[in-house]
Specification:
It is a single chain. The chain is mostly helical. It has one domain. Helix content is about 55%, strand content about 0%. The protein is built from four helices and no strands. The longest helix is centred in the last third of the chain and has 19 residues. About 25% of the residues are buried.
């Protein structure tokens, strides 16, 4: 394993983003609780859902490309 590689699974993060990403569950998984809470609260409103949908789409692409980072700044690249 690389020095700056997270123990978190990219597969799990990708699936969580695909299935529950609009409410930020994938961010809780990687330890980013603050932004996960923001996504969760935003998803309560119609405008917030649009914002979190775009936010999640960007996160999904970043996770799929292996560039998403966990709370410690380590890359989540391990399938």
């Amino acid at each position: 394993m690389k020095k700056n590689q997270s123990e978190k699974s990219r597969t799990t993060a990708l699936l969580l983003s695909w299935l529950l990403g609009i409410i930020g569950i994938h961010r809780f998984y990687v330890g980013k609780k603050s932004s996960g809470i923001v996504m969760l609260i935003l998803s309560i409103t119609i405008v917030g859902i649009l914002v979190t949908a775009i936010w999640n789409f960007v996160d999904f692409i970043t996770i799929a490309c292996g560039e998403f980072k966990d709370v410690d700044g380590k890359t989540i690249s391990k399938w």
